[in-house]
Design a protein that fits this description.
Blueprint: H1 28-34, H2 61-65, H3 80-93, E1 97-101, H4 104-115, E2 121-125, H5 130-140, E3 146-150, E4 166-172, H6 184-191, E5 197-201, E6 219-223, E7 237-241, H7 243-256, H8 262-272, H9 275-294, E8 299-303, H10 313-319, E9 326-331, H11 336-344, E10 361-365, E11 381-386, H12 392-407
Parallel strand pairs: 2-3, 2-4, 4-5, 5-6
Antiparallel strand pairs: 1-7, 6-7, 8-9, 9-11, 10-11
Bound molecules: pyridoxal-5'-phosphate.
Length: about 400
């Protein structure tokens, strides 16, 4: 059985992907449809089959002795199901290789721990996803790593924060809850000559609208839980690496015994096939809702870099080719009871952690408690909205009634 993807879309050479006839590079949507799949290896079945496996049997002593060369050797080390997803995500992220982890939070901790030794200094953006901050404060510090948070708007000022022992810079753009854009190019320009590893949490773009590795970032991390899976029904993390960082991360993940279940890997690759059309619709729907919110008297601010009025709009345009369905907004100061009346009565927006599925979500947030290098001073109640694939007119109706209840 052949385990390799069709040669013209092999993830290890995304730059060389061609249609084989006119020597033209395949478009990104085509790559997402075909990368990591090899129907001819599985009786013509379109999707890679689900291999449930722990023990892999070796028929002879000679085969057992050559175990280290076998691509499939033990369930924890991967199966054709997980290899297919790794290859597909590598093609999406234009990465040399991808390591799968059981959650996005684990992709973060594994990437950090794979690179940082006692005495190292790490710079983490102040608007990162909460559990990334907690990993720095509660795990890395315990292991003697010097953890420093930086203003995500620092730009080339990052130079002044870099120390001789700085080993890694963590970025997230736009950041969780407040959606500031970070100047990734400026940070990479400061880090690269000094050999500092750069990482971007790329969950927001799903890897469709932003390819950090093409800007010289070493590693792009995603919560595959979100847009890659796209259906709110599994947990997954992806660590997509440049050639130079792949072996380190893969080896470290192996030492920690990290692996993912076959059913989740299968579902994630299934979700991935439609990610580009989903993302385009999320973008269109979110833009329409954001523009509507911006005109509401209850709303004092909308935080969505795709809006021309957003302070991060220019940076977003230089790095991204589109925007996802997730953004923030602030409503005028209100009491808990009125807020409850607004959100409890919503019919289409659900309330809960995570996002990236086909359905809309709305969540009150509090960015103040997740900052240390900067202070969140915006008065009013912060909200995070995930705009799903519903009809926007229905979403607007639902929110309009919510605002009526808020005002009562
Ligand atoms: C949700 C999220 C994660 C963590 O993913 P889980 O799969 O929930 O552990 C990481 N980064 C960002 C930006 C996220 O939104």
């Amino acid at each position: 059985m052949s385990l390799s993807p069709p040669s013209d879309i092999a993830s290890s050479q995304p730059a060389a992907a061609t249609d084989g006839h006119r020597n033209r590079r395949l478009g990104p949507d085509t790559v997402i449809c075909h990368a990591g799949r090899d129907p001819s290896a599985h009786f013509g079945v379109v999707n890679p089959p689900v291999f449930h496996a722990s023990t892999i049997l070796f028929p002879t002593l000679a085969a057992l002795d050559a175990k280290a060369e076998a691509k499939v050797r033990y369930g924890r080390r991967g199966t054709p199901t997980t290899f297919a997803l790794e290859d597909a995500v590598s093609a999406l992220e234009e990465a040399a290789g991808t390591v799968l982890t059981p959650s996005g939070a684990n992709a973060i901790s594994t990437t950090l721990l794979a690179h940082l030794d006692p005495g190292d200094h790490v710079l983490i953006a102040d608007n990162v996803y909460g559990p990334c901050r907690h990993c720095g404060n509660d795990v890395l510090r315990r292991f003697g790593v010097e953890v420093e948070f930086y203003d995500p708007l620092v730009g080339s000022g990052i130079d002044r924060l870099i120390k001789p022992n700085t080993r890694l810079i963590w970025m997230e753009a736009p950041g969780s809850l407040t959606f500031e854009m970070t100047d990734i190019t400026a940070i990479v320009a400061a880090a690269r000559p000094r050999g500092i590893v750069t990482v971007v949490d790329n969950t927001w773009s799903g890897g469709v609208f932003f390819k950090p590795l093409t800007l010289g970032v070493d590693i792009s991390v995603q919560a595959g839980t979100k847009y890659i899976s796209g259906h709110s029904d599994l947990m997954l993390g992806t660590i997509s690496c440049s050639e130079t960082s792949y072996e380190r991360v893969k080896g470290f993940a192996q030492r920690l015994g990290i692996c993912v279940g076959p059913d989740d890997a299968y579902l994630a690759q299934r979700g991935l096939r439609t990610i580009s059309v989903r993302m385009r619709q999320h973008h269109a729907n979110a833009l329409e809702l954001a523009n509507w919110l911006a005109k509401r008297p209850e709303v004092t601010r909308v935080m969505y870099p795709a809006l021309q009025t957003d302070p991060g709009h220019e940076l977003w345009k230089t790095h991204f080719t589109g925007a996802s369905g997730l953004f923030g907004f602030v409503i005028r100061e209100t009491d808990r009871q009125r807020l409850a009346a607004m959100v409890d009565g919503l019919r289409l927006f659900g309330m809960g952690s995570s996002w990236g599925g086909y359905e809309s979500l709305l969540l009150p947030t509090d960015p103040r408690i997740l900052r240390s290098a900067t202070t969140w001073r915006e008065p009013g109640q912060c909200m995070r909205v995930h705009v799903g694939l519903e009809d926007v007119s229905d979403l607007i109706d639902d929110l309009e009634r919510g605002f009526e209840r808020l005002g009562r």
